[in-house]
Amino acid sequence: MVRRRIGPIAKCSHDGWDVHNCEHHEDVAVACTGSKVEVRLNGGRDPREGRLEVLYHGVWGTVCTDGFNYAAARVVCSMLGFGYIGRPTSNNYGYGPIWLTSVRCNGMEKASPSV
User: Fold this and answer.
1) Within-domain flag for 111
2) By residue range, what is the domain housing residue 7?
3) What share of the chain is helix, strand, coil (3-state, %, to 5)?
4) pTM, whole model, 2 decimals?
5) In a domain, 115, yes or no
6) Within a domain: residue 36?
7) Deepest of 16, 73, 89, 115, by most Cβ within 10 A of its Cβ?
8) 31-77 pLDDT, tens per residue?
9) Domains: count for the chain
């Protein structure tokens, strides 16, 4: 499991924390071939891929695939130190809360100490 504290994914537009109509079979996963937001990839074959999870109020939760785009995947990979590469991939069904949906990035989001 890979995780790093940094903030640009929260700068991408989305519908709001814990606002969704998703089920866990819609959890987004990312393959990677910067308040602060902590992200991690969980359940992948190696540290560069897995189900995207975000920490919110001390609880890890997932991100729904609805609206999640390639730019968002690249932002996540950059946050994790893999560079500005990445793409959405098939998911590894999650559990717990679904914190975000409709995450759309334009690729210009910058790391920031606060969200």
Assistant:
1) no
2) 2-100
3) 15, 35, 50
4) 0.66
5) no
6) yes
7) 73
8) 664 446 789 998 888 889 899 999 888 899 999 888 888 888 988 88
9) 1
Please give the single-letter amino acid code of residue 24.
H
Euclidean distance between CA atoms 112 and 108, whole angstroms: 12
The pLDDT of residue 52: 92
User: How far apart, in whole angstroms, are the C-alpha atoms of residue 31 and residue 41?
Assistant: 9
- In the structure encoding, which two tokens stand for residue 106, read together? 């334009």
The pair of three-digit structure tokens given for residue 111, joined into one six-digit string? 């790391």
CATH number, position 6: 3.10.250
Looking at residues 87-111, what average pLDDT do you find? 79
d(CA 32, CA 112): 21
Cα separations in angstroms, 112 against 8, 21, 35, 94, 106: 7, 29, 9, 28, 16
Q: Is 27 exposed, middle or buried (0-12, 13-18, 19+ CB in 10 A)?
A: buried
